[in-house]
Specification:
InterPro entries: PAH, Sin3-like. This protein has helices at 4-14, 19-33, 39-49, 54-77, 83-97, 103-113, 118-128, 140-152. By secondary structure, it is mostly helical. It has one domain. Helix 1 packs across helix 8, helix 2 (19-33) packs antiparallel against helix 3 and helix 5 (83-97) packs antiparallel against helix 8 (140-152). The two termini are 24 Å apart.
């Protein structure tokens, strides 16, 4: 699984008859992102939730690293004097998450802020890939998944 969107789509499909498991996964990831739980606890619970779905367990490790890594790198790169960049990026992502900014607009604004840091631009592209179709619109399920991803990207 190459990105967070496809991972969450696969989880939703795998647990279509058990939606509570998908909801619990999203809650766990949000709690991890907000630092209410530690990664080891989340990994243990996800391992339990997906014990019969090895492909989803493998995708989980890829999923976590792609989304959490961007924010960690951003904070490390722009600590101190550049901390306003981190604050701006997080604000843009929040506006996008609540629907006050389009995915396309948010992506462009963040790319401008991290200009010259191609590794961050590439990671951002991975996070945003698949959130919109070529016309720029999102379907209902894509919108829900995009909101789930948006919550993960915030501290």
């Amino acid at each position: 699984m190459d990105d967070a969107t496809s991972y969450l789509t696969a989880v939703k499909k795998a647990f279509h008859d058990e939606p509570a498991k998908y909801v619990e996964l999203i809650k766990l990831l949000n709690d991890l992102s907000a630092r209410r739980v530690d990664a080891a606890s989340v990994i243990a619970r996800v391992d339990e939730l997906m014990k019969d779905h090895q492909n989803l367990l493998l995708g989980f490790s890829v999923f976590l690293s792609a989304n959490m890594s961007f924010i960690r790198k951003l904070k490390a790169r722009y600590q101190g004097v550049g901390s306003h960049v981190v604050d701006s990026v997080l604000q843009i992502l929040r506006l996008c998450r609540v629907g006050n900014k389009s995915k396309s607009e948010a992506y462009q604004e963040v790319v401008e802020l991290v200009q010259g840091h191609e590794d961050l631009v590439m990671e951002l592209s991975e996070i945003f890939s698949g959130l919109t179709d070529p016309s720029g619109s999102t379907s209902t399920s894509d919108t829900q998944i995009a909101n789930d991803i948006g919550r993960l990207s915030l501290p």
